[in-house]
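Dear support,

I submitted the protein below through the web form. The confirmation email said the job was done, but the results page showed an empty box. After a refresh the structure appeared. I'm attaching both so you can tell me whether what I see now is the final result or a partial one.
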Amino acid sequence: METLFDSDELMAAERADGWAETTSRSLVPTEFRFLDEGPLRARLRAVSLGDDVQLSALAYSSLSSRRTPALIRRSDPELYQLALVERGRQGLEQCGRSVSLESGDMVLYDSSHPFEATVATDTGLADSLVLQFPKRRLPFRDTHVSRLLAVPLSGRTGVGLLLARFLTGLSEEAARCTPQDATRLETTTLDLVSAVLAHHLDRERVLPRESQQHVLFLRIGSFIRSHLGTEDLTPAHVARAHQMSVRALHRLFAQHDTTVAGYIRQARLEHCRRDLAAPHLSDLPVHAIGARWGYLRPAAFNRVFRTAYGVPPGEYRDLALPSSGTHR
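What the results page shows now:
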């Protein structure tokens, strides 16, 4: 992510104007009122996904902001914005609705309608992620989407959790993404947003079949990653959990140039590799790391790991953590 604004880089007297200018250019123009005593503290980072989708990470001290009818008449990019609250308490009023949000909540709002937002934090800064995209990119009529404006959307369960985790991971890994990656991630992002809105609108069947299949693949991938420690995590087990046939499951994964078994194996190995290189896990025996990710037989773990990375797991740890000693 590119840092577009950091209050620490400015004199206190320049921060409010700098924040207003940056958010007006990067998000949508609003009027601000800062609620804390002392100088404003704020930061905004952003990454573009394709040509017209942007994910922004915002951190700020307590404030309120308004998008007025006059500002809308002056400039309306016709965007939807989806905010995920990560820390702090936030409120939003739009279209006659008022919602109070806490960590893990999401909310959708529309640049074409006035709104008022408030952010409160007792200590430190409030944090949120804001995804913005043209309204025309959703497969729903505006009259349908308007039912969800300023309505709390949970990011703690189901497809909402899948979207929240995806946005959080994207914000953390954006710096490692190439422009080609960003373009591919744009499709994934909008498919997940559409799936969340379709769930709340009870209009899943409106989604294009390709989007439905993409979201199903992501949902199954999330299920697999959360059950990697289960030894009997087989294609049959995964298919039963999603009420589909094993043949349909294999066909879905083939569309993404992988197999179910290969996906499981790769996910397990990546977690094992990460844990073996983690200093805070250096006292955990190698075989225990394998077991926590589904490799209950040390010999099988050694063989699979060596095949994937060229060295057995104990030697990999010694190379990654030279001072850790040997834990075999």
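Response: this is the final, complete result; the empty box was a page-load delay. The chain has a mean pLDDT of 91.
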